[in-house]
Design brief:
Length: 455
């Protein structure tokens, strides 16, 4: 790196960080992109990885490979843990707990959000979210292991627990997961077992609102509800989950009414998001205000007030109700890069204007919703539109062709090509033969776990 050139540090390799780094490629700055996984993950398709349609490699790509043509961009593995505003320095932690420092002239915080359990962090051990590749693999292990374990049990309440799946949150991720689990049970697994009937599996979808997909037009939301019910998904509105444990959940009505218990061994959480710890720390160090979820208030150009050298983009940007969607992150990354380039050219920065390119949600084979301005598509047309949009934004030509090929094979046949899950069993004490993660090991009795780490 050239010591005389401005240094740009980007925290996070999601849509915002990646698009910002690309736009700064071959510009007269030295860019460092720091990410805790060193890969870009196409989060909108995580649920297809979790339910066995796509592989990890089809929805993710090495950041180092993706940015290899930009010689002024360096990608580093690490997690940002501390910000020194006066020295303009970020401290990052390596996976072995050692640390290193990065100096910056410009800082772009694109760290994204994590799953929120609304203060009930102990739920996380039994109800994984859907934000990372680890989450997707954990859910895949739980889903497919549930059917396998049920196959070994006699008919009765214990088998029914394993064949009951609860999903919290009826936004796009929750709807997509619920639809895919039922489709998995009624198509891909329907004829593969001897003792159980996978199509008898119950899928329960809980939400505090009065309909699914509240960000969509009411007519589209109603259509989605009908498709889900036709699939066999049981919809429960106006409720919130008050307890999650090893063998079930408790649900309470938002108004008057008694709580109800549901026996289930698989709970999937998609009900809320909150800022990652570094974002909250950075807001405190910068003297920035935040909302309840930890989003950081920014000026019209996405910079932090009183700190024009620091940009906050994507889900973390708290301004004018910017949505937590991929398009906002992409546009924010491009805008931050354009602002830095304007600074270098001595030009005035422009205001950030988000352009709503629409929303899409997949429900089941042949059924998806697409909403873009006045255009509202459902059924097969919505499904084709959904597929086109997702293919267009996948990173890497190889991933695009591979994903299209997999989808075509899935349409033609009922099978899922990536159903492999790992239970351990090497004999090493740190790799026990279990569907649970290490955080569960001290909670075999069903008590709440002491840790709030995700499973």
């Amino acid at each position: 790196m050239d010591e005389q050139r401005p240094k740009v540090v980007i925290i996070g390799g999601g849509f915002g960080g990646l698009f910002c780094a690309r736009r700064l490629g071959r510009v007269g700055v030295d860019v460092t992109l720091l990410d805790r996984a060193a890969c870009h993950v196409f989060q909108p398709l995580l649920y297809q990885c979790a339910t066995g349609t796509l592989s990890i490699g089809q929805i993710s790509r090495s950041l180092r490979e993706e940015l290899s043509e930009h010689r002024n961009v360096t990608t580093l593995l690490g997690e940002a843990v501390r910000l020194d505003v006066e020295q303009r320095r970020v401290t990052a932690r390596r996976p072995d707990d050692s640390t290193f420092e990065l100096d910056y002239d410009y800082l772009v915080i694109a760290a994204g959000m994590r799953q929120s359990y609304f203060g009930n962090e102990d739920f996380a051990a039994w109800a994984p979210g859907m934000k990372t590749l680890d989450d997707a693999l954990s859910i895949r292990r739980r889903l497919f292991a549930a059917f396998e374990i049920a196959e070994t049990l006699p008919p009765g309440p214990e088998r029914d627990q394993w064949l009951t799946f609860a999903v919290t949150g009826a936004g796009p991720t929750g709807v997509e997961l619920a639809g895919q689990i039922r489709e998995l049970a009624t198509r891909a697994l329907a004829n593969e077992f001897h003792s159980i009937e996978p199509q008898d599996a119950r899928v329960l979808l809980f939400d505090g609102g009065d309909r699914v997909l509240k960000s969509f037009a009411p007519a589209l939301s109603e259509r989605a509800s009908r498709v889900l019910e036709d699939l066999g998904v049981e919809l429960h509105f106006g409720v919130h989950v008050s307890d999650v444990r090893r063998d079930g959940i408790t649900v309470k009505p938002k108004g008057a009414g008694e709580s109800r218990d549901y026996a289930t061994r698989t709970v999937l959480w998609t009900a809320g998001v909150e800022a990652v710890p570094f974002a909250r720390h950075a807001a405190e160090m910068l003297g920035a205000t935040t909302d309840r979820s930890g989003r950081i208030a920014v000026d019209e150009d996405l910079s932090v007030p009183q700190h024009p050298e620091v940009f906050v983009i994507g889900d973390l940007a708290g301004r004018d109700g910017l949505p937590g969607v991929a398009e906002n992150a992409m546009q924010g990354g491009l805008h931050a890069a354009a602002s830095i380039r304007r600074d270098l050219a001595g030009s005035r920065r422009k205001k950030f204007r988000y352009r709503d390119l629409g929303s899409a949600a997949y429900i089941s084979r042949g059924h998806a919703l697409l909403q873009a301005g006045p255009v509202k598509l459902t059924g097969a047309l919505g499904w084709l539109g959904w597929g086109f949009i997702h293919i267009a934004f996948l990173t890497g030509v190889r991933n695009r062709f591979s994903t299209v090929g997999t989808w075509m094979a899935t349409i033609a046949r009922a099978n899922r090509s990536d159903r492999t899950f790992i239970l351990g069993g090497s004999g090493h004490p740190e790799e026990p033969y279990t569907w649970e993660s290490p955080v569960h090991q001290g909670n075999r009795s069903g008590d709440k776990p002491a840790s709030g780490h995700t499973a």
